[in-house]
Amino acid sequence: MRHIESSDGTLIAVEEVGDGPVVLLLPGAMNDRGRLLPLASALAARGLRGVAVDRRARGESTDATPGLAGAVEREVADVRALVSDLGPGVTLLGYSSGGILALAAALDGVPVARLVVLEAPVVVPGAPARDATIGTTLDELVSSGEHGAAVELYQSRVVGLPPQALSGQREQPWWPALEAIAPSLVYDWAVTDRHPDPTALSSLDVPTLVLRADETWPVLAASADALAAAIPRASLTLVAGRDHAPDPEAVAAAVAAFVGSADGDAG
After folding, report:
1. Residues of the chain with CATH 3.40.50.1820
2. Rounded distance, CA 87 to CA 99, Å?
3. Closest Cα to residue 115, out of 131, 135, 132, 98?
4. Residue pair 23/46 in contact by the 8 Å Cβ criterion
5. What span, in angstroms and rounded, lies between the C-alpha atoms of 113 and 207?
6. Distance between CA atoms of residues 137 and 140, nearest Å
7. Residue 89 — φ and ψ, nearest 5°?
8. For 112-153, how does the pLDDT look when each residue is reduced to its tens digit (9 = 90+)?
């Protein structure tokens, strides 16, 4: 594990597995790089270099300038710093809200060779309603140290989990880890709130592979369809998995085929 410095002095932790063409892995909400390390290892077994990232304010990364204002711009700057460090030809893979961050970075001109968007959420029928007050409330809860309340707000009003799924979780052994990562939820909210509409991606000119688990949640299946339809050079592939948990080996096989194609163009 090493750190790469972003433009505001934030130190972004990365863990690299394997050698070969680089696949930079951005995790989603309530995840750090550990969520994508199995995928990094599976990519390494296929001759690629998987680079798993702790996005700012989570895991072993810092956050020099926290807060909602400018959050998207800071995360895009982080991706730019990572890509610059890793060199040309990077494939940028984002999981869940990390997929929206990957799209935002490409739209902002971060020079990536290819995009892989894995189980990324956009606004489709059946998705939780976007409420502009959520971001401000999250920011206030995090700033005041009410991390548990911030996690529950994100789970209920952004993810859309029902009350029965939230009941009793504060007594679970994994709850402290969720509270620890709560400051990063401001960033997940900011990037998904900035880019809720897939039709706004029609100007994106990067070969893109949209991936989803074949038994994922219906709203994520609809999101994948919408993204694949909106991005001009995109194709959609289904991989084994269920409930927002695609199989790392299946994802790695699809990514390796995409990266290894003659020109990386999905279509």
Report:
1. 2-126+195-259
2. 20
3. 98
4. no
5. 7
6. 5
7. 85, 15
8. 999 999 999 999 998 888 898 999 999 999 999 999 999 999
